[in-house]
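Researcher: We're teaching a course module on how sequence relates to structure. For the next exercise, students receive a sequence and then see the predicted structure as tokens, so they can try to spot secondary structure elements on their own. Here is the exercise chain.
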Amino acid sequence: MSTGAHPVPHRVHVPRRWRVWLPAALMAAGIAFGLDRASFPGSALYPWPPTPCVVQGIDARCGTFAVPENRAEPNGRTIGLHVVVVPARYGATTPGVAVTYLTGGPGDAATEEWFAQGWQSSALNTFRDLLLVDQRGTGGSNPDGGDRTQYGSRMAMDDLDAVRAALDYRQLDVFGSSYGATAEQVYLKLHPSRVRTLILFGGTAIDVPFFDRYAVNAQRALDQLAALCSSEPACPTSFPGWERQFGELVRAWNAHPGPMTGDELASVVHAMLLDLERAVSIPLVVSSAANGDFGPLERAGSGDLHIGDLDVMGSSIWCNEPWVGLEAEGPWGTDFDSYTAAKIAAFRQECSSTAKRAEPRALWTLPVASRVPVLAVVGGADPQDPITNLHNLKQHFPDSRAVILPHTGHRFYIGSCVDQMMADFVARGTTKGLDTTRCDGLVVVPPFELAT
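Model: And here is the predicted structure for the students to work with:
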């Protein structure tokens, strides 16, 4: 996979999307909490500070850092955070500052996703150390969990700051993708003086209820795909009225299920919209299904309507944090209304037996006017985190820029231009003078699939 813009973890698909094998050295790491060695349930004895290791062929330092599971009970249960530090390739030009990556899900592990997504050769790591911390409840950071009230974004961002301080980094350049963009905004609210720059990669503002925009955002993305189809003569000729057929199938199959329910069909189409390379098959899938040929639909894969059992971290976040928007109620006036309502209902049902905690509402608002520079990179046809979910960005972050990659969904692959732009932004420490045109014209729309 090329360096630059990469697949962003699917924010609402509860099962983690990628897995990579990490060497045993990752587990031969250290633990700190004012102790040289400590023991944790299900783990060996590990030292701190981090010790040399090799991750995916890259020299690094690995350790496990100890924190209280509940900071209100400092003498209570302790958990270990899996930490990987990849030193700057050519030496740090800004001592005391590191880049940290917050991945998506929620539920993915930063120490796995950075390498799984091909960021290991990123220019962000050229002159800055890279700090990767598996969020509590993921990867090597107590994935089996414990107290379900203690695995939310707030606790995790306090963890990150504790690791930062222990490693003597004065500030962090924070890069978050999908849910990671939500988490980094929480980190900014909790520890504003420790943030040098923010990169929001396929993210939504923390004061925007995710599910309240879900149906509308999906419909907008589908409408954009329909317009793109209409601009290529073979597509509308091959699939006349396919977008109308989609809405008809959703309603008909919800009334009398066909090969699946209408909500499940909408779920499959939504999952395809996340990735432009899959989205161009939607007209074929829908048109064929409308004509009784379900082969393309079967090959399209499953959607994300059935969320399964939420793990400790998932339930702590999805069931408690205001950004999720589980209070959202339709109608939204789209062909995705019923699917969205069904997805919300599935989360509510799963959350009904989950321990709840109070969240300070003031935390889940954007700063009035932050001096932290912000670069947002957004897919122009993202069905869940479009640019409209980053409302008034300039008002809250005067030193900010938004780069919209046309036609792309929540995952995009356009080479190294995004990586170079992000590295330039971090090096400058401002959006002033930043060249945001280097990706112009580089988005290639694959041909629409016209035959099976």
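Model: If you want an answer key for the exercise: Residues 13 and 304 are 6 Å apart (CA to CA). DSSP finds 14 helices and eleven strands in the chain.
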